[in-house]
Specification:
The structure is a homodimer. Chain A contains 16 helices and 27 strands. By secondary structure, the first copy, chain A, is an alpha/beta fold. In chain A, the strands form five sheets. Chain A has an eight-stranded parallel β-barrel. In chain A, strands 16, 17, 18, 19, 21, 22 and 23 form a seven-stranded antiparallel beta sheet that branches. In chain A, strands 13-12-11-14-15 form a five-stranded parallel beta sheet, sandwiched between helices. Chains A, B: Belongs to the class I-like SAM-binding methyltransferase superfamily.
Chain lengths: ~650, ~650
């Protein structure tokens, strides 16, 4: 099952030996099929400038001269010019010791770091490989943060081993915690990324998954993690393969790290990169949803406002292509027809499709009626004048007399008769967020008292979400409004901190409201909702926002869902929805997280508000340690017009 | 000890009975000497609009009409017009139940709240008294938050009992935690304030003090907390008196709450407010520092930049008035002179006053020499051309020949001889923050190798600070720069979460740097500092920023300090310094708080960076639950020019 459409994966190399010649290294890396090489910027001897044992005044003076910005000597540099720049990632010296207790070593380490970085930036290297933080790393974080603030093009790849090899079993989460703290101190800078180094033993899946929410730009494969196949070639274990394949979705660069274990010398060093490319080529073909969503991963879209705005033809076009959704609707109408009248009866069932768009539900209703062998009279109501043109064409060319098309808002239509079945497709990613409840309340007046609404109900679910990627996307707007706006997103770089839970539901027809003389609800308070759900958070993580999903009963057993656990297979009409938090909250392991959610309404609009509160139990005491504000108060930043 | 200069304190009244007539109530409140009255906006019968048991359709229709905004009936209102508006605080009905599990009660409570609030705002009431949050209060917070977002003039006074009377001993901090959560959900809105209700038993001082960092607009004194003196008049216990006096510094309104205990009926209801005014009149006179600081409490000032800017005459004028500081300097010079030469010796001691300003240290040095009976030759070096005019006057009119005045930067002056004693007053609130280290490094070249610097050293201290007041002041600027700038502030509405700890010190003369041919340091790296201090936080609180202080040894035993524990009595030249945090961090009780602080330098400037990290020990595990970014990276927001 080879997949030739997959783009070529970038595979580079990192050697253990520090003091290499650039030209020779580049040549040998190219010969062994690598796309780039991570090379130290200076020779190891440059370490003398730490001056950690300065005694006499002459040496002290030399040190101060160096500190005052003496240029590199040519012999100190490995990367001496910009000849091979496109082929290189610069490596900062491992010996810099920014958190030394010695003021001199600390100061000189920072100067050396700045020097190396500034030379690499001057040459135009686009990525710099920096050392793993040690246990105490605050001064390292500060120094790097300063560099990040000044750098325009250069990205930082921070070497992060997936497990701390010294304590491989006891402490699986330690490296993530360390990384997390480091980037928090650095304001989640978007140019600070991870070069994730795999280990011989990988931690449990739950610990692997948390890395998917992180900005991984490179994956380091030390040669020691490779096994040997029967032909003597390097291969990865099933578990490593699985993880590498998952990582490949995020399109990182790969780096073969020659750790001098020399396990596969007979087959040559090229074998590692060939194997990585082989894994990439044999990735399974993306499924329909992945194909559809390609390019949309982690891309923030504003939810549709079909009531306020008229959808464009291309939007209808895309959604009509969903292979699953309309089949489910057809099935629902089919069963409803069967239940509605007996086969022998000659009665006509009145179906009203409200919000008919370009007519897919009309077509499906006709099909359902044919299959069910029932007589139907269909009305199609649509308020979008452009879509109505298509409806007119459909009626004259395809549907004919059995369909009556009506131009207008379903909430205001004076229907000539009452419907047996009301069919609508007004659901948004959050269920009610495209105002299905309000629209169907208005349409309900021309549904018979015992009539059927398809959908008959929908439930909304939320879960706590971690995703520095999405958070950075939102915060790039640098304003409050975007933090208080929900987005439709195809999740990729995310980790769910707990499984989704239901917050509320809507049912149709709805008998709970008082009507006015026009048979419309006298107000919309019956469609407000308020819910608190409690999540037990087992593993620590950063809460960046809240994911939203819906599950709908179209008719009896015919259900439609975008909730991961029950997702209607192959249906791509809805991505989940994402409600951001203004300030990310670090959730410690074994925390209790309360999420509060509101659906609120005025006479003009509907909006959501949300807030969270995290607590920890210490002995018999519950300590609440992190709360958000209530976001989007009064719908100040985002709302849906009625 | 009566203090007639104290401004009149506002004392109002709150009655237990709900259904009162406004005109009568106002008259009786005035007759008993009160300045205002807290009065319910509607009669208690208005509760019928909760419609908590709506059965038939007719009543349902009535409810919906009311929900749709039917105006108040005149009879439902207690406050019916704006006749007594300046005398009234409106009270929201206690029966509103915003967190009811019943959708109808919840919805109608919010409508009633909005109605009452909007009527009060319409009348122009400037304050609204709202009920204490119950155990579940999220929907209450959301509803109030919405109102806060829309209100322009009206302030909210939230009734907060200082202890939850149901569990008076076990749970002293519960009410503060509740309040804290409530206002966090409400984005720390500046119009949401506390009406703090005192109880018969007051909690321990440490729990009382945390309220000083909160926005207390009113203090409620229920009549039951009053004792009876020998004449039968109401008085407060010593502990209550002490707390009330402390609260009076924040100038809240007081409210006598007639809780129907009827303890002092013989002496009349006026006796309570008279007693409160009596306490206010007999407050101790403010000390010199309080007098000097009056009007400056919690006011953010930018630290001086004497090196970059020339100080104004009025600034010198104020600081020269300090009764303590110059006496300490005189003492230090006196002892240094005694140590420097024997009395019988006829040797002349060379004193150089660097940064002489308008000359106070010159005058004090002359006095010290006279007292010590030592011969001196004094140089006064000053770079501010305006101050130098005054120095010229002083020389010709007062000092005469024994003083040589020099115009120029002390770091560049070519002195004609070397000094025995170098006297300077370059310290800022944070010790080194007005660049004393850099200036004295430059002046050191004309100090004899065994010469004395006054001051000889200074140490910097920090402590974690809670102050929603200061935080709101900083965030009012709505930009990053102000969050990354230190301020000089006379603390008032603050609580220290732990005692100050030392972070670093400077000593003069300083032998640790290499000099260039001009005898100046070749660079400034020796004046960088980095320190981590760990605080154990016993009681929970919100960390809004970091307080800074200094302690200095002028000479041997002569010290000068603005650290609270060792503050030089009566000295007012320095207020503490405040480094804000961009995002406040809630610190749970028994937490460990690490604060990291840097003093950093380039060739052009000096700046500070700071960050914090809070953790909690659960079993054997340390859980880090809250970190800040590293603030002011690279001095991007605040720095001191060299």
């Amino acid at each position: 099952m080879s997949n030739n459409n997959v783009p070529r994966v970038a595979v580079g190399v990192l050697y253990s030996q520090e003091d290499r010649d650039t030209a020779l290294s580049v040549t040998s890396a190219k010969e062994t099929g690598h796309d780039f090489i991570i090379l130290p910027i200076t020779h190891s001897d440059y370490k003398r400038f730490l001056f950690d044992k300065v005694e006499d005044n002459k040496e002290k003076r030399l040190m101060e001269e160096w500190r005052n910005g003496k240029p590199f000597l040519k012999n100190d540099l490995i990367i001496q010019n910009n000849e091979h720049v496109d082929y290189l990632v610069g490596k900062i010296s491992d010996w810099i010791d920014l958190d030394s207790s010695n003021h001199q070593v600390r100061t000189n380490s920072e100067i050396a770091l700045n020097q190396q970085f500034s030379w690499a930036a001057h040459l135009g290297l686009t990525a710099i490989f920096v050392p793993t933080p040690t246990n105490s790393f605050l001064n390292y974080a500060r120094s790097l943060n300063k560099i990040l603030g000044n750098s325009t093009y250069t990205h930082i790849w921070m070497r992060i081993p997936i497990i701390n090899e010294d304590t491989p079993y006891s402490n699986d989460i330690e490296m993530w915690e360390k990384w997390n703290k480091f980037r928090t101190f650095c304001e989640n800078h978007h140019k600070l990324s991870i070069a994730l180094e795999l280990s011989v033993n990988l931690p449990d899946d739950v610990y692997l998954e948390r890395w998917f929410a992180e900005p991984i730009k490179a994956v380091i494969l030390p040669t020691k993690i490779f096994l040997t196949n029967v032909k003597g070639y390097p291969v990865l274990s099933k578990k490593h393969q699985g993880f590498v394949k998952k990582l490949m979705k995020y399109k990182p660069s790969f780096v073969v790290f020659d750790d001098m274990t020399s396990k596969h010398q007979d087959v040559g060093f090229a074998a590692y990169q060939e194997y990585v490319r082989h894994i990439n080529r044999t990735m399974p073909e993306p499924n329909q949803i992945e194909q559809f969503g390609n390019g949309y991963q982690d891309f923030l879209q504003s939810p549709l406002q079909p009531l306020m705005d008229n959808l464009e033809s291309s939007t209808y076009e895309i959604f009509e292509k969903d292979p699953v959704k309309y089949a489910l609707y057809e099935k629902a109408v089919y069963y409803a027809l069967l239940d509605r009248v007996a086969l022998e009866s000659n009665e006509i069932t009145v179906i009203m499709v409200v919000g008919a768009g370009r007519g897919p539900l009309v077509t499906r209703s006709i099909k359902a009626a044919e299959k069910a062998n029932r007589k139907v009279r269909i009305y199609a109501v649509e308020k979008n004048p452009n879509a109505f043109v298509i409806l007119q064409n459909m009626k004259s060319e395809v549907w004919g007399d059995k369909v009556t098309i009506v131009f207008g808002d379903m909430r205001k239509w004076k229907a000539p008769e009452k419907a047996d079945i009301l069919v609508s497709e007004l659901l948004g990613s959050f269920g009610d967020n495209e105002l299905s409840p309000e629209c169907l309340d208005g349409a309900q007046k021309y549904l018979k008292p015992d009539g059927i609404s398809i959908p008959s109900s929908y439930r909304t679910f939320i879960s706590p979400l971690s995703s520095s990627k999405l958070y950075n996307e939102v915060s790039a707007y640098k304003d409050l409004v975007h933090f208080e706006t929900p987005y439709v997103v195809m999740f990729q770089s995310v980790t769910e901190l707990a499984k989704p839970q239901e917050i509320w539901q809507f049912e149709h027809p709805n008998g709970s409201f008082v009507i006015d003389e026009e048979e419309n609800p006298v107000n919309n308070y019956h469609n407000t909702r308020y819910s608190k759900v409690t999540f037990n958070i087992t593993n620590s993580g950063i809460l960046h926002g809240i994911a939203g999903y819906f599950e709908s009963v179209l008719y009896k057993d015919v259900t439609m869902s975008i909730l991961p656990a029950t997702h209607s297979e192959g249906m791509f009409s809805w991505f989940p929805i994402f409600f951001p938090l203004k300030v990310p909250i670090y959730i410690t392991s074994n925390s209790t997280l309360n999420i509060y959610f509101w659906r609120l309404t005025s006479s003009k609009k509907v909006w959501y508000e949300w807030c969270v509160d995290a607590s920890l139990t210490v002995g018999s005491e519950t300590k609440s340690y992190g709360s958000s504000n209530i976001q989007n108060v009064g719908g100040r930043s985002s709302w849906i017009g009625l």
